[in-house]
């Protein structure tokens, strides 16, 4: 039994006594205890691939920030690596794939990964975390959306345009779909295994949704996200597509429970489009650079726009690593205090 089930109830559309709150990327560089632990290791991947350490980092923000959920410490790029395309995490540069997908032969060489065999360290981290949490808060599992994973596998690194990946959609859409089908099959098995290991909710991150035009997004992303949502019926699923405001109405038709909004979307406009679904978000991460009073006012305004129910408070993207943890606490405390008054 969960001692704090606010997030689960909000995700299911049930009434809550206040708005639950957590932050994307809450387990990470904003916390000095994370930096201290990371400094003793060879790098990011050692942390991700060591279940006991990943569990420790997952729980740090629950202890330090008193958020209403933990999210397993991992990375969306463990999926392509499990499929046979390894990545490196280069300090100050981000992810790098020494090899990329360029041809049908490259796609043929990729496997549909077995979760226990190829991603067992993540599943073990979930099991260790669940034991350590002892029901304090729900645990969120996650994966990248197939389009975002394809973008990295084809491009080989982060990009402002992902022009190589986008070129594939125009030049060889059949090959793109073949790759997306393999990614989707791996992702479904992986997320189902996360649920079996103890994840209470699932979030699908489409980080590079906003670089696609709407027609391409529907063809090369939404259809595969739908398959993922259909395959995860036992726990609430959140879909977050950064920069793809045009996809919100389509997401309303998906079998997901929650739709994440980035900071450019107005929940007052979105509410009429999504029926009884829960919304998540969406304070601008840069608002946390303001004074405590400014953070408090921005948070209250966000809460007013979402209204008192069917809302999970969060940022409109991940918290930035140079954010003052004190301002993060102001955000969290304000959500807890002010959302209670909205229900009075």
From TrEMBL:
Q: Which family does it belong to?
A: Belongs to the uroporphyrinogen decarboxylase family.
Associated pathway: Porphyrin-containing compound metabolism; protoporphyrin-IX biosynthesis; coproporphyrinogen-III from 5-aminolevulinate: step 4/4
Q: Any idea which positions bind substrate?
A: 25-29, 75, 152, 207, 317
Database matches in PANTHER family: METHYLTETRAHYDROFOLATE:HOMOCYSTEINE METHYLTRANSFERASE RELATED, UROPORPHYRINOGEN DECARBOXYLASE
Could you state one GO biological process linked to this protein? protoporphyrinogen IX biosynthetic process
Which domain of life does the protein's organism represent? Bacteria
Reactions mediated catalytically: uroporphyrinogen III + 4 H(+) = coproporphyrinogen III + 4 CO2
User: Which SUPFAM superfamilies does the record associate with it?
Assistant: UROD/MetE-like
Q: What does this protein do?
A: Catalyzes the decarboxylation of four acetate groups of uroporphyrinogen-III to yield coproporphyrinogen-III.
Q: Which top EC class is named for this enzyme in its record?
A: lyase
Q: Which GO terms describe its cellular component?
A: cytosol
**Gene Ontology MF, one:** uroporphyrinogen decarboxylase activity
**EC code(s) of this entry:** 4.1.1.37
Q: How does it assemble?
A: Homodimer.
At what residues does the UniProt record annotate the site feature described as Transition state stabilizer? Answer: 75
Instruction: Give compartment(s).
Output: Cytoplasm, Cytosol
Q: Does the keyword Lyase apply?
A: yes
Record protein name field: Uroporphyrinogen decarboxylase
């Amino acid at each position: 039994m969960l001692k704090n089930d606010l997030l689960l109830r909000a995700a299911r559309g049930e009434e809550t006594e206040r708005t639950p709150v957590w932050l994307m990327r809450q387990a990470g560089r904003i916390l000095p205890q994370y930096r201290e632990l990371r400094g003793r290791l060879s790098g990011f991947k050692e942390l991700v691939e060591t279940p006991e350490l990943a569990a420790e980092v997952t729980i740090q923000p629950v202890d330090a920030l008193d958020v209403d959920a933990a999210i397993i410490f991992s990375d969306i790029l463990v999926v392509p690596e499990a499929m046979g395309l390894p990545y490196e995490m280069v300090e100050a540069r981000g992810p790098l794939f020494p090899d990329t997908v360029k041809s049908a032969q490259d796609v043929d060489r990729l496997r549909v990964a077995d979760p226990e065999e190829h991603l067992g360290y993540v599943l073990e981290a979930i099991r260790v975390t669940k034991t350590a949490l002892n029901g304090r808060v729900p645990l969120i599992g996650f994966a990248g959306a197939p389009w975002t994973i394809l973008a990295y596998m084809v491009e080989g690194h982060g990009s402002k345009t992902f022009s190589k990946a986008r070129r594939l959609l125009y030049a060889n859409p059949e090959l793109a779909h073949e790759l997306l089908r393999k990614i989707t099959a791996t992702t479904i098995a992986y997320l189902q295994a996360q649920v079996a290991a103890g994840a209470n909710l699932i979030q699908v991150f489409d980080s590079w949704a906003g670089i696609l035009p709407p027609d391409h997004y529907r063809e090369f992303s939404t259809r595969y996200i739908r398959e993922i949502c259909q395959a995860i019926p036992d726990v609430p699923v959140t879909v977050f597509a950064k920069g793809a405001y045009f996809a919100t109405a389509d997401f309303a038709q998906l079998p997901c429970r929650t739709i994440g909004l980035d900071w450019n979307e107005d929940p007052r406009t979105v509410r009429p489009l999504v029926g009884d679904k829960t919304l998540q978000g969406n304070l601008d991460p840069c608002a946390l650079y303001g004074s405590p009073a400014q953070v408090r006012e921005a948070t209250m305004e966000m809460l007013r726009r979402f209204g008192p129910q069917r809302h999970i408070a969060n940022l409109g993207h991940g918290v930035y690593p140079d954010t003052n943890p004190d301002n993060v606490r102001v955000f969290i405390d304000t959500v807890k205090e002010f959302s209670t008054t909205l229900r009075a």
